[in-house]
Amino acid sequence: MEYSRWAPLYRRIGEELGLPFAREEQAFAQLRALLPAVARQQPLERIAPRLAGREVVVVGLAPDAGPPPLWRRPAGAERLAVVAADGATTACLTAGLVPDLVVTDLDGPIPAELSANQRGSLVVVHAHGDNADAVAEWVPQFPGELAGSWAGPPRDGIIDVGGFTDGDRAAFLADHVGAARILLWGFDFERVVEADARSAERKRRKLVWAGRALQELAAEGRTPLLTWERDGTLAPYPAGIKGASTR
Known about the structure:
Elements: H1 3-17, H2 21-34, H3 43-51, E1 55-59, E2 81-85, H4 88-94, E3 101-104, H5 110-118, E4 122-126, H6 132-138, E5 146-149, E6 158-159, H7 166-176, E7 181-185, H8 197-220, E8 225-228, E9 234-236
Parallel strand pairs: 1-2, 1-7, 2-3, 3-4, 4-5, 5-6, 7-8
Antiparallel strand pairs: 8-9
Helix pairs in contact: 7-8
């Protein structure tokens, strides 16, 4: 999705959740300074060959989801690609799957993401107003190919093609670079695993917006967006939005 179409929704998210854009600007400047120069060169052109024309499985971290059962997809189905959303990287690697892409704001298991990066995953690091310490600590340690994203207009090689949390941001990215269709595995917008009540409530509010962002993508994006259910069936996301094939 083009930034001009995404920006109005993000402004609403920022207003409701109290996300000062000045802090996003600071995050952008920090990420730009820390990314190697090569990571800021043609990021979308480097990402596109990994996803364009392929059936992209975006792997989330819903409780008990585990890794996607790729063996259930028809042999050669649209040349499957795997994109791990942050903490789902561990589940993928445990199952022997090295993601084509990892999309992360660095609040998950960073050692798994470093390992995936070393083994060939392109890691898209997202900087925002609340992860400055993690960006400063971890970005210099990634050994492989990187790209950067933030919540403002694309510039200086830092991208924004839409999305709010790691999972929906991954789906927006797959749509933007021309995936054949997008399967959401391990997405849950209701259950939250947080010990602290205040953190859990904030997480729930973020998940509500993640779901709304994906509704926007389903309605306005170019790529069929489907939920991959645990029983192996595919259903348009959300039900009734897009009458895509579920074979």
